[in-house]
Amino acid sequence: MREAAGFFTHIATPEVLERYRKLKDDLSGIARTAIVAEAGTPVPEALDGETHFFDFQELAATSQVMGTRIVPGNCHLAMLAFFRAAPNFDYYWHIEYDAVFAGSWRTLIEAWSGDDSDLVAPQVRTKSDDPYWYWWPSMRVPPRVARKGLIRAFLPVYRISHRALECLEAAVRAGHSGHFEALIPTALNAASLKISDLGHGRFYTSVASGVETGTLRHKPRHIGPLTLQNHIYHPVKPRDVPRPKRRSKGDASLTATIVVPVYETEAYLTECLESLQNQTRADFDVVVVDDGSSGDAESIVKFFQAEDLDIQFVRHRETMGTLAARLTGAGQARGDYVGYLDSDDSAHPNFVERLLGAAEETKADIVGSATTRSHLRTQFTVSGADQILRAFADKTIPNWNTWTKFYRKTLLTDLNTSAIDGQPIVTCEDIVLNVFCALTNPTYAHVPEVLVAYNRSRPESNWNPARRAERQNTLKEAIKAYDIIRAAAPGHEDAINKIIKSSTKFIQRKLLLPADDEFVAWALSHIRESSMADLMIPAMLEGGIEKITQLEPRLKNRRETIKRLERTLASQQEQLSRTRERLREARKRQGEARKRRQRLRPILGDLWRWARSRFWGRS
Known about the structure:
21 strands, 8-stranded mixed sheet, flat, Spore Coat Polysaccharide Biosynthesis Protein SpsA, Chain A, 7-stranded mixed sheet
């Protein structure tokens, strides 16, 4: 069996090239190795080994692709380019530059040398197994393929057969498209080719959805020792990749502080801080505020301190809520502006540069950017409490999120927060903070760009329909936040009422629509008994969601159904009791019959012996 191993990379630092040399040495004599890189990657000509370059634009000209780059969804084209350049092998290994094997790669390759699977990959899952995978909507395949089932895998390391690559190439030519981690296994499954898991628990460990842990994961990167022998670790980013030149610690040219609140989100914190480490502008520091979390955020902060990120760590002794964590961070800030980034989000490399640049250009007190859900794409400024609140209410300012905004530090530190002191606020804390800031008559400037990758899909989120108690608390806290902002803004009732109604519709979509009828009934009852009933119930009815407007008749029908079932159950229980009584009587009769047989047995024995001696002459 002839095998080839492609080392796929877009960078060629000394550490990356050393990883390739290790792969080549480990596989000497059992597989042919080659670097596979996009045209323009600075691979040294003197490197001892093959190098295959591909041009993404040429590949994209004959295929349906996602976006304008090879990543994140078009990596199958690189493998097909490798296949065309070296077509004489039975199996091909794909190994990314940031995948590291804690041991010899030979151990992994030889373990599969006798297996005839067409695809050997980690985390092989059907759509029903993992329905919330982010890239399912990218799939464009014929109905016959979809009927066979959509399948995804995680593909930093995988093996694929010659005939599977031919099948994949035919599917691409036929116009099949989508993220390569679903396109490849789905195409092979449609052709009834054999797909096997790479070896969970043997060569890798992971949890593919929710908090990503284990040795093989999408993110965050591994920052500690690789302790499990003969396991694949991913991602292990090379430490010699050039980063933007950073300001020295203690440099007086500090312009901003980024505050990152943490509460049970340590699994995402590394990726968040990495995104700040990779900013194109460096005149800022970072404050991580641990709001009484049970995890170890401090050790992650220490790692980034060692990597020269100007970062400090603050811990609340008890959980005080997200708003309190944001204000604690503002109190520790050394920059003129305070920006916020949630610990489970990540910032675009231009996040600081674009927002700080807009603040410096407009002299605004608050600078905000768009989100993926924002439709507004124009730059503007607005000033004064009334104008800003109205802009929020009619969505001229398209979002309330603090994690898309920078605030002048003095605006936050001078806020009168007596109305919220001692009240942990988690839900709608963005609205509370922005209303309080707007009431100080600031100037707001809007940057029409999406600068933060936002994450609300994690399973431990309070928006998850499976977390009933947390969703109940979310609704209660939202009502508490509405009470606070209505009391804090006399004279702005129209704008505040609009804001509350708009937020209610959001909660309706995110909290109530995915919920079961029982939870919705509880929510409606709780809202009716609250001080916000006059705003929230009409807002829900305006939302036009059938689930809300038709809930009570459905619940009435359900109650009647329950009563019928209770009557049926009572009747069945009565029948069961009668059946049990009859069974007891039958067992009693059986017992009596058994006793009679026992009494008759010796009499019948005597009769039989008498008959034998009388008629057959036997004793």
